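no rush on this but wanted to send it before i forget. theres a chain ive been looking at and ive put its sequence and its fold in token form underneath. please have a look and point out which stretches look like helix strand or loop to you. thanks a lot i owe you, the record is right below:
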Amino acid sequence: MPHDLLIRNVRPMAGPATDVLVRDGKIAVVGHRLSPVAGMMVEEGGGDLLLPGLVEAHTHLDKSLLGQPWYTNTVGPRLLDKIDNERLNKRRLGMDPYQQSFRQTVQSSRLGSTHIRSHVDVDTDHGMWGVEGIMQMRQDCHDIIDVEIVAFPQSGLLRRPGTLALMHEAMKLGAEIVGGLDPCAIDRDPKGHLDAVFGLCQTYGKALDIHLHEPGEMGAFSTDLIIERTRALGMRGKVTISHAFCLGSPDRDLIDPLIEQLAELDIAIMTTGPASRPAPPVKKLLAAGIRVCSGSDGIRDTWGPYGNGDMLERAMFVGLRNNFRRDDEMALAFDVVTGEGAKVMELAGYGIAVGCNADLLIVPGESVADAIVSRSPLRRVIKRGQVVARNGVSILKAP
């Protein structure tokens, strides 16, 4: 439920020190020497930075092995091998979607995230197991974070008959976003795959967030087909392409026309700032007016052992991958894990202005760039006006 709170002596976005008064979970007043009313909680900022809550715009809450015994990974390098291995071993490894998503959600929250978009597997082996588990978790974790669910055909949509019917079931159950995956490389039927996922969007009036790992010309071809359908179906502003490795191609004659059309149709891009793959050029995309968000992707799962849910660290990865060195460039990386992510998720009332929801992060640092680089563990996370995590300890205990 919303809370009242007075936050004293904080520096919004590294600006001058001020106080912030929160009423009913929203920022009501920003000013100096504000006084609390009787019974109101007071948080002494100590001159720390006040930042908007971090936005984890791309992860897989049903996949994490956090809290589980170490998983020895011998799978790959083919993408399909990793997909099939995970699907076949979920129950054997005890990857209960409720428990594992709860663990990752608490981890993300205590590090400063106030919103998560999670892709959740829908397949013929597990049906609604993942979707139902994450739905129960987000209800139980509502006080600390908001979670949006993408129904995601990780194992393929057409290559495994029956998956499309399950996608319909997931949307009827309450998933907010339709997911898709590599129309050429996984389903090997780009027209059929895109007809199916865009059809789901049209049936349920939902947006699309499609994984596109396909590189080079193959990825550019799939991107062009996505652009074509977005335009034809009037879905401007309702499509996100995640990963979009093809946009990192050095062939500008191939990529620049795509960027122009992505901007025209307000198609958003999600990048993790990957170290091992071509990556979308963040500064160029932002300059073109394209919304760019980021996320942790998988965290300690059967795909890889990395990840901790820290979106300040993710901003650093985005900065490193894009050779951001100046403070104004670091500010772009910060925007990608905050305001830009909020735009992609269409979050109403996001920010640190009067009238915005009090979803906030208090962290030591001289500047936003310093916060990204130093990543102090002494963080205070506020959700709807309540302090929900302090110095790495959440008000909720994960199972």
Remarks:
- The chain has a mean pLDDT of 96.
